Predict the 3D structure of the following.
Amino acid sequence: MPEPIIEIRNVIKRFGNLAAVDNVSLTIHKGEFFVLLGPSGCGKTTLLRMLAGFELPTEGQILIDGQNMSMVPPNKRPVNMVFQSYAVFPHMSVADNVGYGLRIARTPKSEIGDRVQEALSLVQLGGLGERMPDQLSGGQRQRVALARSLVMKPKVLLLDEPLSALDAKLRAQMQFELAEIQSKVGITFITVTHDQDEALSLADRIAVMNKGQIAQLATCSDIYEYPANRFVADFIGSVNIFEGRMVIDEPERAEIHCPELGRVYLNHGVTGPHGSNLWVAIRPEKITLCKPGQAAPKDSPEGTNHADGVIRGMSYLGDITIYEVELPSGRRIRVSRTNLSRFDQDDFTWDDPVSLHWHPTSPVTLLS
Amino acid sequence: MRLMRRTPIAPLEYSRRLWLRSWVGGVALFLYLPLLVLIIFSFNDSKRNVVWRGFTTKWYGKVLENESLMAALGNSLTIAFLATLISVVLGTLAAVLLWRFRFPGRAGIEGTMALPIVVPEICLGVAFLVFFAQVGWPNDLIWPLSLGNITIAHVTFCFPFVALVVRARLASFNREQEEAARDLGASEWQSFRDVLLPHMKPGIIAGALLSFTLSLDDFVITFFTSGPNTITFPVKVYSMVRFSVTPEVNAVSALLILLTVILTAVALKMQDISKTNAS
């Protein structure tokens, strides 16, 4: 059983009449890389700031390492934060920035020097201790902020949108580095982000938040492959959602009628209320695009599900091409296709009639 | 060999157009010619100030020998120093208060604080005259306590300038820096001292220099609050002019201009710094 480091119990935070965080309970384990993911205004940053102590919960409790944090001010909490703006002190050198917390804690001078060096080399800023912040790039400034927090050896490190201000290349590099640093120091990391790629690449577990509540809490692959509701399915990745009605629901087989798509067959039961409305979500990469007549045979698993359509939109992204296919019902469905050969993008073009098919395990049924 | 061709004037290159150049030159002449004449005639080797009789620096020597003038200068510098010190503390506190906290009457305070800047000086002067008479402010105190009433009067119109400059500087402060300091273990006071104060420093210095110049220069308000033993430099110069405008007055004025220009330049430079490194 993993040991809990943070317990959030029925926490509510109201600003006036608005509940920014609305009755959230969750447990974060020791050594975990935990990500709070959600659109802006979903309460994720407020939750993070309550962990740091900059906001107090209106109701509920926050426990860090078993201690109730309600009355503990930010400077007495065993957590440190890397701010979105990095908040590096502009009038102090890099080394002075990193050593600030240690000086406040009256750590002996010799020890400060060693620990600052250690922290700086951990974030690969070894020789830059004497630099002033305005001589650093954005990425380097973030490393300073990271080192400044890590040097305090907190029980939990909080990161507010750590990669949002970096350009794409640097972001990809920093993603791996953050994960590497985390496994090196073994501290619990909690990150807030609105970027699903960032969340998926960093997290051990993700809490997807919506309107102050947790929409789903699960591992990365579970969030993507088994979304709990339409919000999560739609927020993480790209997805086609169709409204439908359950026709057959047996342990080994289910059949759903979607007015806009036709019949959807599943090779497992749904155990939902029979005859009730539900939604079917299919990811674009789990649909195969074929010329009419080339589709997999209907009795094979791959060919169980079938639909016809006409290509109405295309966007070539290099590694994949995304097609928008208009179904007979008029509804459009997104299909992505990996460009396995250099000529793959020539196979289909606008207004081509196509047939689509997908495996009976591909659709996800959503009850809300 | 062909002469280098001049590049044509670009549409937005107004600084290269003749009409604009002459206009700017004309304005500059209008503004600075009187000062220039004043400074030039401070080197005039003549008792009368009309005809140029040759170069001399003797008037500057005379100024330095003039004991009552030097005493007045001493008074002025003392008052300016004290008024600046008090203004900086009050102004900075007021700026932080208005920036940091929300409280009833905040807008009212922000508005009335700037009042001493906009109220005509003559009104302030009369007000102080009446005020000090009403409260029975003693005018037989020993130096430097005798400068107390002038200092108080100067503080009232100096500290709003400090507050304004520091307040403007605070607008560029990133609150996350303060939170970062708190997060790293600093108390409220430590984060103020280590993060907010260094950020305000250029604004504080600029405000201090500004209020020092304002206090040093002030005539109207000082005229109404000074007694026979507390003559300040501008008041003394005024009384000298009443007898005759000698090159000595020119020399004194030139010195005052020089001092003011230096202080203002430093103040502007400081504000410049506070604008560029706002991060």
